[in-house]
Specification:
The chain has about 220 residues and is an alpha/beta fold. The chain has a single domain, classed as 3-Layer(aba) Sandwich (Rossmann fold). Helices cover about 35% and strands about 25% of the residues. It contains 6 helices and 9 strands; from the N terminus they run E-H-E-H-E-H-E-H-E-H-E-E-H-E-E. A hairpin with a 2-residue loop joins strand 8 and strand 9. The chain starts with a strand and ends in a 19-residue tail after the last strand. Bound molecules: 5-O-phosphono-beta-D-ribofuranosylamine. The site of 5-O-phosphono-beta-D-ribofuranosylamine has 15 residues, from helix 1, strand 5 and helix 6. 5-O-phosphono-beta-D-ribofuranosylamine (GRF) binds next to helix 1, strand 5 and helix 6.
Length: about 220
């Protein structure tokens, strides 16, 4: 069975969705450890309560990004994971770190990339007036929020949405797609080829999402 290390910085709800999927048997991986750059990250308690080893590396204690990334890599490598899973890890990683884990470092981002890389994605989506928003699981490359896309989920943007309601709608989907993407990796059902992701999973062409879609014709 493949093993993963999860990196977090805060709440850890995506991490929890991965642990839930492992516990239910839907995700056949071993979570070797959860690492955080913040001691106060809520997700650390969740992980510890479920018996997952945790470790904190406070980035403020390191002289620079390179020193922090080197220490983080050392901590990760102690667990020899097959995959490193960023789940709300709020640090930009150096090129060296990203290259060290090329093809085995994934992230979840709360927008339909390549739209809205960076922060405040829901606010920016509302400001732009997009009618479809969502989340993306992707391999990490040195370009921020820009690696080969594994999986996306789209949600409608509804009249009356604010940042909180839209974020909540997207987060529900994040919790669905991240365990699924990690599962496909664990089962060798996807691979990187020439900077794109190739799949060995049956694909469904029956769905089309139109947003907004009215409940009843009028
Ligand atoms: C999520 O929206 C994720 O997409 C983004 O940061 C947020 C982390 O939330 N990268 P959580 O810590 O997983 O609850």
């Amino acid at each position: 069975m493949k093993s993963i290390v999860i990196l977090i910085s805060g709440r850890g709800s995506n991490m929890a969705s991965l642990l839930d999927a492992v516990a239910s048997g839907a995700l056949p991986v071993r979570v070797a450890a959860v690492l955080s750059n913040r001691a106060e990250a809520k997700g650390l308690e969740t992980a510890a309560a479920r018996g997952v080893p945790t470790r904190v590396l406070d980035h403020q204690r390191f002289a620079d990004r390179a020193a922090f990334d080197a220490a983080m890599a050392e901590a990760i490598d102690e667990f020899s994971p097959d995959l490193v899973v960023l789940a709300g890890f709020m640090r930009i990683l150096s090129d060296g770190f990203v290259q060290r884990y090329a093809g085995r470092l994934v992230n979840i981002h709360p927008s339909l990339l390549p739209s809205f890389p960076g922060l405040h994605t829901h606010r920016r989506a509302l400001e732009e007036g997009v009618r479809v928003h969502g989340c993306t699981v992707h391999f990490v490359t040195p370009a921020l929020d820009h690696g080969p896309i594994i999986l996306q989920a789209a949600v409608p943007v509804l009249d009356g949405d604010d940042e909180a309601t839209l974020a909540a709608r997207v987060l529900t989907q994040e919790h669905q797609v991240y365990p699924l993407a990690v599962r496909w990796f664990a089962e060798d059902r996807l691979r990187l080829s020439n900077g794109r992701v190739e799949f060995a999973v049956a694909q469904d062409d029956s769905g089309v999402l139109i947003a907004p879609r009215a409940r009843r014709p009028h």
